[in-house]
Amino acid sequence: MTAPIATPEDYVVLLRDATGLDLDLPALESDFDSLPGWDSLHLLKLVSALERATGQRIPVGRVLEARSLEQIRRVAVGA
Amino acid sequence: MDGREAYLLSIGTALPGDPVDNAQLAKALGVSEEWIEVFIGTRTRHFARDFATGEVRWSLADLCAAAAERAVAAAGVDAASIDFVVMGTATPDALMPATVNMVADQLGLDQIPTYQLQSGCAGAVQALDLARTLVTSTGGTGLVIGGDVCSKHLDLRRDLTAAAPSELVNYVLFGDGAGAVLLGPEPTGEAVALRRVLNRVTGLGRKPGQVIEWFGMADRDSGKQAINEDYKAIEESVPAMAEEILWELLDELGWSADELDYLLPPQLSGTMTAKINSRLNLPGAVEVSCVADTGNNGNALPFLQTELLLKQMTSGQKALAVAVESSKWLKAGFALEKL
Predict the structure, then answer these.
(1) Which of A28, A53, B28, B67 lies at a CB distance of 3.0 to 4.6 Å from B178, suitable for a disulfide?
(2) Smallest Cβ distance to B32: which of A39, A42, A44?
């Protein structure tokens, strides 16, 4: 199955919908510490949205090791 | 001052239905089960409405009456010996009649003073405070009740994928339940002295950390978010407030930290309570917590903790409970000593 997060552009759309935050392409590579407004509840909304999009459980342990949104996307697509 | 003391004579609690685990909750809310485990750290909670159908199975009055009946039975007294009822809740069944009076009706109580305190997590402590004043000033014996049915806001028909984080967080934190104690002027039954109660609003000029709206016919379609939790402010403020409450109470009691046998810390969630407990840093005191198994059921929590405490407390031991209500930033706590 082709997940709707195959491209960074698709992923930004999913991220904005899931979190309500005004995120853009450069934000994907930002460290979470420099991402304005980001917190663990946004992480819940993102992980839940990714699970719906991919139809698979996302291992939260690996997500927690990620330092950027792009690294989370790679966890989700299994890359 | 006439030197009278108030004593906790007995306790009863009520949790509705079977526990709902994170797998069930995650599936119903469409959120990650593992996230709930890692970030919230609460394993199970109980809901007064059927989790599958949404049907209401217990009212708040039902739960509070069940808890109170257990407390009365445990003390081995009859209804005639109850002189007043004080109840704290954030989620009354109706604005009128006050739920406390429906509880009194279920218990067969009549012709006595009743009080209901509209309150959040500090409500059980406020109820204890008022009851202690009544016991020591009148010599009467009273029922102190706390309970909440947070599942009133758990609308499983809604698509929560679009819910704001400040709303969604409530669904993974909360549960339902009730508790009650009998408080009297003589050290009978459990014979635990209520040595001190702290109950103080500290939120002057400060934005509330937790808001629960209520709606009437004119604004029911306003689309306003019914519950709103400023979880960042809570995460930042509650541990510091808990520490201040602990030391203030110890100081007022003239107790040293080493003397404390048990600590009942604030019960926000499994994870937050563990963080607060480690910050309070009282390795000599046994932690008494329930939130990881019961969920955050508001005004029921201090009773559920006290029930766990009484199972292990022995003569001469001391316990201190700390609670914070983040709505308008209330500091609360109480001290118990078993005779």
Answers:
(1) B67
(2) A44
Q: What pLDDT is stored for residue A3 in this prediction?
A: 58
The pLDDT of residue B2 is 53
Distances (CA, A) of B307 to B53, B86, B145: 31, 18, 13
Structural domains present in chain B: 7-184 (3.40.47.10), 192-338 (3.40.47.10)
Q: How far apart are CA B301 and CA B303, in angstroms?
A: 5
SS3 A41: helix
The HSE-up count of residue B22 (CA atoms within 13 Å, CB side) is: 18
> Residue B6 carries which side chain, given as an amino acid letter?
A
Give the A-side interface with B, CB within 8 Å: 18-20, 39-45, 47-49, 51-52, 57-61, 64
Tallying the residues shown for chain B, one arrives at 339
Which pLDDT score, from 0 to 100, does residue A79 have? 61
CA–CA min distance A26, chain B (Å): 23
The alpha-carbon gap from A16 to the nearest alpha carbon of chain B, in Å, equals 11
**Could you give the C-alpha distances from A78 to A46, A58, A65, A68, B108, in angstroms and in order?**
16, 9, 14, 16, 63
Could you tell me where the beta strands, DSSP code E, fall in chain B?
7-14, 20-21, 44-45, 84-89, 114-118, 142-149, 176-184, 192-201, 210-212, 227-229, 262-264, 286-287, 318-325, 330-338
Question: Which pTM value belongs to this model?
Answer: 0.92
Which helix (H) or strand (E) element contains residue B22?
A: helix B22-29
Listed residue (B143, B151, B102, B105) closest to B124, CA to CA: B143
3-state secondary structure of A61: helix
pLDDT in tens, B235-257: 999 999 999 999 999 999 999 99
pLDDT tens digits along B4-19: 899 999 999 999 999 9
DSSP-assigned letter for residue B51: T
Contact B177, B204 (CB under 8 A): no
